[in-house]
Amino acid sequence: MSMLDNAVQSIQIGMEDFHEEDERRLLSAIRNLYAGILLLFKYKLQQLSPAGSDEALLKTKVLPAVDPTNGTVVWVGKGKKTVEVQEIIERLNALGVSGVDWKLLTALQGIRNDIEHYFSPLPNERMKEAVANSLHLITQFCEPHLEERPVEILGQQCWDMMLSVATFFDAELESCKANLESVEWPFQEVRDATSHMVCPECESRLIKVVDTSAQRDSISFLCQSCQCESLYCQVVGPAVEASLAGFNHWNVRKGGEPATCVCPECGYDSLLVEENKCAACFYEFEYTHCEWCEESLSIDERQYSEGTCGYCQNRYDRIMAE
Length: 322
Ligand SMILES: [Zn+2]
Ligand SMILES: [Zn+2]
Ligand SMILES: [Zn+2]
Fold this sequence. Notes:
By secondary structure, the chain is mainly alpha-helical. It contains 11 helices and 8 strands. It folds into 2 domains: 175 residues, no CATH class; 59 residues, no CATH class. 52% of the residues lie in helices and 11% in strands. The site of one zinc ion has 8 residues, from helix 11.
């Protein structure tokens, strides 16, 4: 049986089990669904592996070898260990597989790990999210990169089942999105981070603000999945961190300052440097400019000095030492 057949069978078994009320079957549903999706991506890596490389792209360990026929160096897969999620994403990205929202795959991995480690069953909405994520990954990947229509490889019955669950989940997600967008957020950076907001308890994206007319830290969240209520800071802190992580990384690499720094009050990387205010807990540094020369203080100087820049402090120290 080919790797593609394996992938399809695994997804089909997953969807059959998904219907059952039995918790053990639900566990097996998520396991199979996740395994099937990974196999789809691995199938692509198998296809792209050069002939005679022992499926190099699928193997964690790849070693150089000399081809005896022409003396060139080739990379050959070694051992039994095959690539996992992060390597799959890196390799497919490097090979030009685009248009796949990898966040959906890491979220699916998160749901699978949660279900393995929690003692109580995951809320129903999380299970639906797993199916919805799988469906979107299949749609984004199959036709553009495998030249296969999802319904043709999975069969009408399985595909219809996935569609009905995913449609339901997507509608709920849309309604959460509309709710979050209607809130008057205290900072633009928080508004930009709404797509990163998740329930701190179960990590579901299905969260809503309880009272959309609430302001600042009186804003609170209710998870539509596990029904847990969360405070403004608990949701906004991690969301702003995640939303600005990429920008910060590149800006610092280019020699600039990050847009945020770690807040000494709440501990999230959500203190907006320009506004001098934490987007999550509203903490602010006492000094933003040097008391003596009025130059803007760097993040370190704001944190550790008593309102003087390094230059003035040095000069002062030198004069005092004379
Ligand atoms: Zn939750
Ligand atoms: Zn803070
Ligand atoms: Zn100064």
